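So, can you check this record?

>
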Amino acid sequence: MSSQPGKSLETFENPQQITDYTIRIQVPEFTCLCPKTGQPDFAELTVEYIPDQLCVELKSLKLYVWAFRDEGAFHEAVTNQILQDLVAATQPRFMRLTAEFNVRGGIYTAIVAEHRAEHWQPAIPVSLP
């Protein structure tokens, strides 16, 4: 088991490629640095995705997220970078990344970024009585 952060995202074959289903991953301890002050920023990341052929391996995601701990990044930039890297690794049908940053200067920030595969159509929602 690695004890070092890394920017490599590993994947495994989606065991259920026929049906759309949602994978929801919560990362409650994301940390990066403010690029202006160098002080730490803390966030909870929520990754929601409908896989196509590949799923992200969770240990590699943990090490990937850890790699941002000593990097300076604006909230908007780091959220979109993480989404782009996850999409590049897994090529999902749909992916949404929500980053809810803790208060800084009396202001909370939430960034939501999404990806949709070009030919993917979401299922019609079922409304139960």
